Amino acid sequence: MNLTQLKPVDAPRVWRGPEMAARSAQWTYRLDAKAIAELDTAIAQIESRAVDILQIRREIFALPVLGETLRRIRHALQHGIGFAVIRGLPAQRYDIRKAAIAYFGIGSHIGEAVSQNAKGHALGHVCNLGFDPDLPTGRGYQSAKQLNFHTDPTDVVGLMCLRKAKSGGLSSIVSSATVYNEMLAQRPDLVHVLTQTLYRDRRGEIPENCLPWYRLPVFNFRDGQLTTNYVRSTIEKAQRFAEVPRLSDTQREAFALIERTAADPALYLNMEFEPGDIQLLNNHYIMHARTSYEDFAELDKRHHLLRLWLACEDGPPL
Predict the structure, then answer these.
(1) Average pLDDT of adjacent 10-residue blocks, the chain of 318 residues
(2) Which of 16, 190, 289, 301 is the most exposed, fewest CB within 10 Å of its CB?
(3) How far apart are the first and last CA of the chain?
(4) Beta bridge partners of residue 225, listed in sequence order
């Protein structure tokens, strides 16, 4: 797409954080006693049949009433504002297996769980393992450090809070289309730079017969629809490969602008997780970040989220 073809996005997924904070009823879904009873029944059926968590599918995790709410959430993720938060799951009453069954079952009504790493893990644990995210194979979610605005490489990412940090760890989200529109108004030349090929590091997770890096622009258009994929660390880490073109000053200027725009308090929305909260984001339309956090000294009190990456048959064309 050339510079003259770039136009602002006009869709429900274009929003500003302060406005969304005032409209929390639009994107917050609180589980009532009937929904929790449905979950308890579904969990008991999975356990009585000795079904492996990874084998849970929508067809065997019946949620007659809550399922209708999840259909509305799925529509909002793909065709509405692009995110939702479910609150009230009794995570502190469930043991970790029951919580994982409930979460995986809810996720099955949104999409199909896919692998999050080369080991094939479909249910990820977001906690501080002391790893350095600056290393080539480092993953930011395995540390307590701040995570800058980015997207994950799947249709929908879900996070469920089991335990919150002692302090910090706020989740921040921003509409990618709003970021794009703001950038387009300021520097259309730099927006155009981000529609061009960029090289990304696979971080040592290399499929058979693939190179250790891949190509993908930040702003991608298909059938006139914008999707966004931005992870600064994978772009910078790809520079370790001699065959990958060197980043230009203009490209780095574009990175600085998208990060500065996403981090504008007039654009992003902050939310704090409580145990049992589930956040669902459409990665094609939402960028997310996290503030650094301080953990408890006791291992059984430390910050712990469960993560799902979901592939959705009704996702946007890519």
Answers:
(1) 87 97 97 97 96 95 96 97 97 93 97 84 76 51 78 96 85 97 98 97 86 96 94 96 97 98 98 96 97 80 90 89
(2) 301
(3) 15
(4) 222
